[in-house]
Amino acid sequence: xxxxxxxxxxxxxxxxxxxxxxxxxxxxxxxxxxxxxxTFLKGKKxxxxxxxxVESVLRVEAVAATFKDVAxxxxxxxxxxxxxxxxIAAEVAGSIVEVHPRLQTGExxxxxxxxxxIDDRDYHSEYESNKIRLAxxxxxxxxxxxxxxxxxxxxxxxxxxxxxxxxxxxREANSSADRLAQVQHAMTRADIKLERCKVFAPFTxxxxxxxxxxxxxxxxGKIVLGLADDSVLELEVPLDSRDAFQWLQFVKSKRDKxxxxxxxxxxxxxxxxxxxxxxxxxxxxxxxxNRISSFDEKTRTVxxxxxxxxxxxxxxxxxxxxxxxxxxxxxxxxxSMKQVVELPRWAVSFEDNVYIIRDGRLxxxxxxxxxxxxxxxxxxxxxxxGDMVITTRLVNPLERSLVQVIKTANPVSKVK
Length: 416
Prior knowledge:
There is one protein chain. The protein is α+β, with helices and mostly antiparallel strands. It has 3 domains: 60-69 and 338-408, conserved putative lor/sdh protein from methanococcus maripaludis s2 fold (Beta Barrel); 73-81 and 230-336, Elongation Factor Tu (Ef-tu), domain 3 (Beta Barrel); 88-223. Helices cover 31% and strands 38% of the residues. It is built from 5 helices and 19 strands. The protein has helices spanning 2-44, 121-158, 163-196, 241-247, 311-316; strands at residues 57-64, 67-89, 94-99, 108-109, 114-118, 198-200, 205-210, 217-218, 223-240, 272-277, 280-296, 301-309, 327-344, 353-358, 361-366, 368-373, 376-381, 388-390, 402-408. A hairpin with a 2-residue loop joins strand 10 and strand 11 (280-296). Helix 2 (121-158) packs antiparallel against helix 3 (163-196). The protein is rod-shaped.
C-alpha cells in the first residue's frame, strides 16, 4: 500500500509541473503576439509634421510723445442767483389805494415806477395842521424874543425891572422856541410819512413774491413784496482747495507774487469764463471771475464767485436766457501746465504707468501725472520727446511683447 501511494504521489507532482510549463509557454506566446502587434502598428504610424513656432504680435495704436504748454481749465458747478434780493415792507400803516397794473410775480418793473400807494389823507391832514401851528408859533417866538430883549435892555442899561423879570422873559422865549421846534419836527415826520405812502421801484426789478392787494390794510414792518435785481447774476461755485491753490489765476504784484490782501486770499484775475446751463449746454453765457467768497473747512473747498451781466442776453435777443435758479457748469481758465505730454486718459494705468514701444517691444514706464481734464492725462515726467506711447487700452500686457503699430496720431520719429 505504501509503494502504491508513493507512486501516485510522484505522478501527481509530474502532472502539476507540466501544467505550469504549459501556462508559462502560453504567456510567452501572448507577449510575443502583443509585441509583434505593437511593432507592426508602430511601423504604420507617421511622424508628426514639425511646425515653426511664431511669436504673437500686439497690434496697437501709438503716439509720439510731444512736450508743450497746455492751459488748465477748471470745471465746477453752481446755482445762479440774482445779485440783489430785496424784501419791501410797509413803513406806515394804512389801506392800499393803488398798485402797479403789472404787480405780479415774475413781472419786471422799471426803476422809479410806482409799486403801490397807501392812503395818505391822515398824514396829509397832520402835515397841514402842523403847518398852521408853525405859522402861529413863529409869530409867538418873534414876540417873546423881542420882549426878552426889551426887558433885558431895560434892566441892564436903565436898571428898570428885576433880574427875576429878565429870567422869566427868557424862559418864555425859550419855551416858545421849543414849541416851534417840536412843530417843525412833527411837520418833518408827517412829510416823511407822506413820502413813505408811495413806494417806487428802487431799481429795475423782477417781482419774486407778492402779498398785497388793493384795499388791503397794512401795518408798519409787514413784508409785502420781494424784488430781485437781475441786471447782474452771480454764480458761486466750490473748487477743490488744491486746484485753487495750484491753478487759479491771482492778481500778482510787480515781483510776480500774489498781491497781499491781509489775512485772506489775493484778488483773482477777472478772467472770462464760460457758463452753461447743465440741462441745455447750448444755453450759455460769458461770466467774469469776481472774487473768492469763502473757504469751507468741512469740504476743504474754496468758493469763488462769477458775475454774469444780463446785457449780453438783451443784445442776443434770447427768449430764454440764463436766469436765477438755474444749475450751471462753469469752465474757469487757469494757469498753464509747462511742458507736458497730452495722452488719452485710458493710456495711463491707475498706478500711473504707460506702455511705450522700444526696439519693437512693449515696455512699462512709470510717469508723473500733473492733471487729468477733459478725459486727457497730462504727463510731466517719465517720458522723453519722441517716445512712442501706446494709446490702445491694454489690460496687464506681457512685458517685452512684440508690438506692431497700426495707427499713429503724431508724425513718428525713428524709435531708438
